[in-house]
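Ticket #4471: structure output looks truncated?

Reporter: J.K.
Steps to reproduce: submitted the chain below (187 residues) through the standard prediction queue, then opened the result file.
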Amino acid sequence: MSGDVHVRFREHPEGRFLRVTRLVVLARYVSPQLEGWIEQKLEGWMGLKLNREKTQVVKLNTEGAHLEFLGYTFRYERDRFGRERQYLNVTVSKKALKRARARLHEMTDHRMCYVAPPQLVGRLNRYLRGWANYFGYGYPRHAFRSINAYVRTRLTQHLPRRSQRRFRRAPGVSFYAHFQRLGLVLL
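Returned output as attached by the reporter:
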């Protein structure tokens, strides 16, 4: 190895260091020497304690292997055009999508019927922009489409709950156009 591993720690106000919970090391080939060097650096030089039960080596080039880390799923997939090579696909993990849907469900819950649609769309836009900024790396198109469809469905369900009178769109205006007029962000 040509250089040392640099890890930045945030110091606790009392002078103690906070613990590192996850660390991923990417390597083309994992040899016993490399494993020993990493363990020596982490335990000896940095003074960290490795959890041997949770420590694992994932070989992404094997069939069906994937790594989930910080809301992303990393895996090798075959080429879309039938060529012999594989490429590393980085997508939003299923767990992150589930958490996003739960948060959006909470924001458009039946208990939020008192929130005016422009205010609700403003809150949703703030959340969606932040979510899209974080998960914009890799290939997020399918996840973004899924979230867009979910938000439109939830808003379509939310509008009739707002009053005792039935919600009526303007003649000839779809829900999609109505949400665009309100300023809903699409990912």
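Triage note (M.O.): checked the attachment and the full token line is present. The two ends are 41 Å apart (CA to CA).
Status: closed, working as intended.
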